[in-house]
Amino acid sequence: MLKSLHIEAEKCTGCLQCELACSYRGEGVFNPAKSRIRVFTFHDEGRFAPYTCTQCAEAWCLHVCPVEAIIDNPATGAKEVVAGRCVGCKVCTIACPFGTINYNQDRKIVHKCDMCGGDPECVKSCPTGAILFLDADQTGLSRMRKYAGQQIHS
Amino acid sequence: MRHVILGAGPAGVSAAEIIRVTEPDAEIKLIGAEPEPPYSRMALPYLLSGRIDAAGTHLRKTPGHYAANRIEVIHDRATRVDPANHTLMLAANGNIRFDKLLIATGASPIIPALPGSDSEGVYPCWTLADARNIIARAKAGAKAVLIGAGFIGCILLEALVTRGVRLQVVEMADRMIPRMLDRTAAGLLRQWCESHGVAIHTSAKLSAIDQTAGRLAAQLENGRALKADLIIIAAGVRANTQFLQGSGIDIDTGALVNAHLHTSAEDIYAAGDVCQGRDFSTGQYDVHAIQPTAVEHGRLAALNMCGRNIAHQGSINMNVLDTLGLVSASFGQWDGGSDSAEFSDPAGYRYLNLQFQEDVLTGAQAVGLIEHVGILRGLIQSRLRLGKWQARLLHDPTRLMEAYIGASRNISFFSRV
User: Fold this and answer.
1) Is residue B87 part of a domain?
2) Position B313 in a domain
3) In B104-160, at which residue ranges do the beta strands (DSSP E only) sit?
4) Is B342 a member of any domain?
5) CA-nearest residue of chain B to A60?
6) Residues of chain B with C-beta less than 8 angstroms from the C-beta of A91
7) Which residue of A has its CA nearest to B384?
8) Residues in chain A within 8 Å Cβ distance of B378
9) Domain A3-149 annotated CATH 1.25.40.10
10) Which domain holds residue B257?
11) Which of B267, B285, B250 is nearest to B102 (CA)?
12) ipTM for the predicted complex
């Protein structure tokens, strides 16, 4: 059974532990700007929203890549960037309608959430259980993906 | 069922793969005019800069990919199409019958018909062969003149500077990338290039290429002559439709298609740079000549060729460009809406311009802002009604992600309380 990230934003306190854990795993530094998961702040509402790639079935980033540098990991369902193939053209960063694949100016390639190969650091670092890693059919991910697809195609 | 795909670029290769998945028993022939395995023109600048080798430009990396998917790759050029007899004529391989044909022959660079434009040392940068010619001449310290500061020119600009050539750029229009950036954004880009030692001549038109005693010079209409070891032409492209003349297939600026990527001839479809397909923003039919549109066309045309009857909602015209480290992007109707919001920080080389129709984003430009830019596409294509978030964006356009998350319900965060 494939698992996916499930976010319960109302539990998020905006502590940014997920961003630190993610950037450390991905880039070896504690720097929220380098995190694949980002927490957005809603000052007026006093709310926080962690946000990252849903590994969507449409896989806009994967299909648009001109050099096959984004591949589907069948073991996890994650769409992963192959660092040695990416030329840094950034066409995936404009093609992804969720804005979840980004250009890394230091490494001159794009980066995105790869669900840490099946053991996501953001989940482990979240002190309030706002980010969970659940069986995909429990998370409503398929519904979410369907909705996302409709939005784009309609 | 025999599917013949003419053109081995991103549109053709995507189509072949979708047909294979959709019709496991179909016969698929993929015909490319160049001697190389299917490759990406978009990757050529990175070959020039030395970042990748020729194999790095290949569209697919797995050895034996096409054979494993029973896609027969043929290196040949089409000379004519006979729709009535479902027959394609190839220069070397004679006639091929098809049940369904996809025209994905792409585009070719426009070389201005000027005295000397066929001189040795004058190249477009469109094929692997062109890139090899340029690499041979673009040595560190060499003088290069780039004709055209459009999208392709600006991508090449970076690769040429990386090679250490002394570069001058000639652009006919009054600014860089006039079809992608407004005056403010183009002005920032120009200033950035000049601060990196690249001379930009705008409102300047090439009149001739002079070759005296083995030295090239680009002669401009204003009387100036720019000496060069190498002249690169990036003056636009045109759809490869010449071989369709006389076939009865309707052609305008590209092969005309309906919403199913179907041409005016039965069982013949078109996709990619050669296809005048539906534009999402305008509803009109235009040639985009961009990678995302090529892939969308290829995938959708393939489904329709397999009888799936899926209409194309239109592709968004969009581009992203890295010019010596300054990233710019544009989307959709960036040059006009009923309302607009702007963030401008010229000293920091940052600029964001949003265009709205009522409370829906319809176009955008971003310079120096690279985080989450894809959301601009998402907002335009989902036609998400921003409601109260529009006012917040008018106040601070950089809060795009908050506006998207707040206004969309595809993430159910805000419906729980």
Assistant:
1) yes
2) no
3) 107-109, 122-124, 143-147
4) yes
5) B292
6) 42, 291-292, 320
7) A151
8) 96-99, 151-152
9) no
10) 2-107+238-305
11) B267
12) 0.94
